[in-house]
Specification:
The complex is a heterodimer of chains A (253) and B (274). Chain A is an alpha/beta fold and 253 residues long. Chain A has nine helices and ten strands. In chain A, strand 9 and strand 10 form a beta hairpin. The chains are: A alpha/beta (253), B mainly alpha (274). Chains A and B meet through helix 1 and helix 2 of A and helix 2, helix 6 and helix 13 of B.
């Protein structure tokens, strides 16, 4: 599968072995510019490892990852300023205020007018009331909004999200999803979203890649997946895949 | 692979962003600032009073002359030790705050990261050592600043060694996570007996002297004794220390890049726990 120049992300026969065990086992997919794709899978399916290889944090054992035309991780410094990521498992310094954290990362990403960009994000993500509060004094929902602000500081063309609404209450999670939809719409950004939350994936994603034990088990639009598996919800499809039932007939048995 | 971490691009703005990040942290926490001054003060007072006691009670001779440089030795040792610790603690702050993936995913180059850590090492060292050196004048009449050019040579060589060790430890932390944290706090103590901080190299067994002379700080501490006891500045020793430091710094940088490469292969940049 040769990477087309137009792909925002091209993953080709990607393998990651840890001590001989395959965390990712020969997966291939491409993300078109401006698309939003869900990466589904149970614990240990290889989602986080896949995202880490796309970010250049983990070196593949075999296969290739290209982001915006740059091969990762070797050519990552060509494109890191055009991408960003957010994960609830990565924090920002707790003693620094939100404004200090954002200004440090804005400078790292080479944002031109840092004050204006932070003000813009504070307005869009409703951060103004706690901009000068230490990160460690924020609620989980506020922290997630700050992490999202960090991820959007450089207006990334490729945005990688690892369970962006994990541990959020339904209202805040819904609010975050609406902001992500708006960001993609306004900036024609490519988003890859790893999640356990099927409602989230169903609402946000125009395509779903389902992983199991390091492999891609299915890859289609949510509507096609529901139709092929004869199911009402993606959660049911996910359970079918997790339990090895590949189509409507098998699912019905 | 290592080549992709070295790169040719260097941004002063990114370095200053990281220095700001550590400065915000330092100024927001008075225990962190107190910690920079507290232990060097305790060390200086303890060795200073010991020096005073020995000089008042041990008569004359070479022992008393050697004991007469305890305060100078402890102040220079603290430059070496605190130089490394200042570097390593700033690095550890990223791991304590689970921020390392954010940093490694940003456009910050490893050389810029290391530059910021070196600058913070000097800032932290200055906060600790300036008050302590003034206290040494007040308590014992020992004026470190009166060493002038020699002090600059001692300082530069000790700091280079501290940074080299700090860079190596940062590589170990990237590769092994917080399981290697204790190395950051204790690795420099290996240098304490081997670099002959408080006694001449001649005291060591002959075979161990070869080891001692392969470590740059040994030349600094011998040079300090030559200056304080014999009133001779040994520029030759400082140049030899510099030569060994260049080798040590290059080796540490290479080791760091190899450990970073290994961390990417092992996937430990995302998992910085134990």
């Amino acid at each position: 599968m040769a990477a087309a120049n137009t792909d925002a992300v091209a993953v080709d026969r990607l393998v990651k072995l840890y001590k001989g065990l395959a965390a990712v086992d020969g997966i291939s997919f491409r993300l078109a510019p401006g698309s939003i794709t869900g990466l589904l899978g149970g614990n240990g399916a290889g989602k986080t490892t896949t995202i880490a290889m796309i970010m250049g944090l983990v070196t593949p054992t075999a296969g290739t990852v290209c982001v915006l035309g740059a091969r990762m991780p070797n050519e990552r410094y060509r494109v890191l300023h055009r991408m960003n990521f957010e994960s609830p498992y990565v924090d920002m310094p707790t003693r620094l205020t939100v404004r200090q954290n954002l200004s440090v990362f804005a400078q790292l990403y080479g944002v031109a007018d840092i004050g204006a960009r932070i003000a813009e994000l504070a307005r869009d993500l409703d951060l103004a009331e706690f901009l000068d509060r230490p990160n460690g004094k924020l609620s989980a929902g506020q922290k997630t909004r700050v992490s999202l602000a960090k991820a959007l500081l450089n207006k990334p063309e490729v945005l990688l999200l690892d369970e962006p609404t994990a541990s959020l209450d339904p209202d805040t999670a819904d609010w975050v999803r609406s902001r992500l939809e708006a960001y993609r719409r306004d900036n024609h950004a490519t988003i890859l979203l790893a999640s356990h939350n099927m409602n989230e994936v169903e609402r946000l994603c125009e395509r779903v890649v389902i992983m199991k034990r390091g492999r891609i088990e299915d890859d289609d639009t949510p509507a096609h997946l529901l139709s092929r598996y004869g199911r009402e919800t993606l959660e049911e499809v996910f359970l079918d895949v997790a339990r090895g039932r590949r189509n409507a007939r098998e699912a019905a048995q | 692979m290592i080549g992709s971490d070295v790169g040719m691009s260097f941004s002063v703005k990114r370095v200053s962003a990281m220095v700001r990040r550590y400065w915000y942290l330092l100024r927001s926490s008075w225990p962190r600032i107190l910690d920079l001054i507290y232990w060097p003060t305790v060390q200086m007072l303890m060795w200073g009073f010991l020096q005073m006691y020995v000089s008042q009670n041990a008569g004359g001779g070479p022992f008393v002359r050697a004991a007469g440089v305890f305060i100078g030795a402890v102040l220079l040792w603290d430059i070496l030790f605190r130089g490394q610790l200042g570097f390593s603690i700033s690095f550890l702050e990223e791991m304590y705050s689970h921020n390392l993936a954010n940093i490694m995913m940003s456009p910050l180059r490893p050389v810029e990261f290391i530059s910021a850590l070196m600058i913070m090492s000097v800032i932290r060292l200055s906060i600790g050592m300036i008050p302590v050196s003034l206290l040494a004048i007040a308590f014992f009449g020992f004026n470190l600043w009166a060493l002038g050019l020699a002090l600059a040579a001692f300082f530069a060589n000790l700091l280079l060694t501290g940074w080299a060790v700090g860079i190596f430890v940062a590589g170990l932390l990237l590769r092994n996570g917080m399981g290697a944290e204790s190395m950051a706090w204790t690795i420099m103590f290996l240098f304490l007996p081997l670099t002959c901080v408080y006694y001449p190299v001649a005291v060591l067994p002959a075979w161990l002297q070869y080891v001692a002379w392969s470590l740059p700080p040994t030349y600094v501490f011998e040079g300090m004794r030559a200056l304080l006891i014999d009133h001779v500045f040994r520029a030759d020793l400082m140049l030899e220390a510099l030569a060994f430091n260049v080798v040590l710094f290059a080796a540490a940088s290479y080791a760091f890049l190899r450990l970073l490469q290994s961390a990417r292969v092992q996937g430990t940049l995302l998992q910085t726990g134990e």
